[in-house]
Specification:
With 175 residues, this protein is of the alpha+beta class. It has helices at residues 78-103, 156-167; strands at residues 6-10, 19-23, 27-29, 33-39, 46-52, 60-64, 104-111, 114-123, 130-136, 142-149. The strands form two sheets. The chain has a six-stranded antiparallel sheet with strand order 1-2-3-4-5-6, with helices on one face. A four-stranded antiparallel sheet has the order 7-8-9-10. Strand 8 (114-123) and strand 9 form a beta hairpin. The termini are far apart.
């Protein structure tokens, strides 16, 4: 029965309860993920696309195995689905971590007032992206904050130059 649909409980692992899945030869779905086997546009093979619930674009697309007839894809099964969910979840988690690291940077430098942590927090607004450059002392007390271009490059040299020129002068305070 190619393309037959059925619902069945499957034990994902010891940490989860039985989750009903939509199971077809080329489509498996749980509450968070959908695995869809698709024709690979680049060649005669097949690919599997992993969609997170509510997303229109796949979180991950990878090659998929040909079936025994060397024409059609191998059907999805429970073990493959579990592996695909783990792989896609890890990929999404790493992508989120990378984005966070790009948008929120910090450098600690020395000043006459002690160690100063300089932070750059980028606000990725589609129309008018910008960043906030801020400094705080060792106790975490704010010393200064300015709005800068989203393309501002924070590194040890730019942080030290800003701290030396601006935010740690006596009476400079928060901007």
């Amino acid at each position: 029965m190619i393309g037959a649909k059925f619902h069945a409980p499957i034990k994902m692992n010891d940490d989860t309860q039985d989750t009903p899945l939509l199971q077809e030869h080329r489509l498996w779905q749980d509450e968070l993920w959908t695995a869809r086997v698709i024709k690979n546009e680049d060649d005669d093979g097949w690919a599997v696309a992993m969609f997170k619930a509510g997303e229109s674009e796949p979180a991950l697309v990878g090659p998929w195995t040909m079936g025994r007839d060397k024409k059609n894809p191998k059907p999805l099964d429970g073990n493959a689905f579990i592996t695909l969910v783990k792989t896609a979840s890890e990929f999404v988690r790493r992508s989120e971590q990378q984005l966070h690291a790009q948008l929120h940077q910090s450098v600690t430098v020395n000043s006459p007032k002690g160690r100063v942590t300089v932070r750059l927090d980028i606000v990725p607004d589609e129309d008018n992206p910008y960043a906030l450059l801020s400094a705080s002392d060792e106790a975490g007390e704010p010393m200064a904050e300015v709005k800068v271009d989203a393309g501002f490059k924070l590194n040890r040299q730019t942080a030290q130059a800003w701290v030396d020129a601006d935010c740690v002068k006596p009476g400079s305070g928060r901007r």
